[in-house]
Amino acid sequence: MMTSSSAPVLLWDIDGTLLYNDVRGLGPYLDAIARVAPGVPVPEIVTHGKTDWQVICELLEAADLDLGIAEAVSDQLDEVSRSYLDPEGALKLLPFVSEALGAFQSAGLRNGLLTGNSIGRSRMKLTGAGLNAGLIDWDAGFFGSRTRVRSDLSHAARARFKDVPILLIGDTPLDGHAAQKAGIPFVAVCTGIYDASAFENEDCLLVLDDLSNGREQILEVLRHIAHM
Predict the structure, then answer these.
(1) Core-most of 43, 94, 155, 176, by most CB within 10 Å?
(2) HEC string of 160-221?
(3) Other CB atoms closer than 10 Å to residue 122's CB: what's the count?
């Protein structure tokens, strides 16, 4: 379905927002680094809410490896990810996601992405979880394969859609911080590792348990934004 270039844009995070990802830990990143720098021990770091590029750079720094190999590691990450994402049950769409994206698309909205993943890993994850890729407007996507600071993605989105109602939807406070820094309204969904209490001090227009009853609320928020 084609939508107008002036249509309101929903920018979705992926992990914890649209799908459940059973690939825990640093496995794909460590395998990618091992392909470029074999035999180097790499300390663990926390990955939640970070872009792929940020995780790669932080791991290389923790291992005292040259950041000059980051691009090669990033390229390998797409290659090794399939073996982690292919096993049955590794990826599952969260409840009501297909219905919500379909309803928003039918209402004339664009379902874009603002994610820490590369476009390749984003496609692997979403189609691997069983989402109809046609529900995503891939031209309205901002991807973190070469962006260390998540707010750089939100600033790029704000600049591109400066005259269009826009909303960022994610499951972590870091999603909210990125939205706030770029002046993009934020909706939190508590379908990842954070519950509603994590967003008490965040600038959220809505905090939703899931997308079951949140569709009309999101549409109402967009109507309000459009008339501000």
Answers:
(1) 176
(2) HCCCCCEEEEECCHHHHHHHHHHCCCEEEECCCCCCHHHHCCCCCCEEECCCCCCHHHHHHH
(3) 22
Question: Among 15, 13, 49, 3, which residue's Cα sits nearest to residue 165?
Answer: 3
Contact between residue 155 and residue 216 where contact means Cβ atoms under 8 Å apart: no
Would you put residue 49 in left (φ > 0), alpha (ψ -120 to 50) or beta?
left
Bridging pattern class, strands 206-208 and 186-189: parallel
Secondary structure element (H or E) that encloses residue 19, with its range:
strand 19-21
Q: How far apart are CA 146 and CA 29, in angstroms?
A: 14
Local confidence band at 22 (pLDDT 50, 70, 90 cut-offs): confident
**What's the whole-number mean pLDDT along residues 34-52?**
93
Give the model confidence (pLDDT) of 87-99 as tens digits. 667 789 999 999 9
pTM for the full predicted model: 0.90
Nearest to 117 by CA among 201, 193, 21: 21
Taken as a whole, the chain contains a residue count of 228
The predicted-structure confidence for 161-187, as pLDDT tens digits, reads as follows: 999 999 999 999 999 999 999 999 999
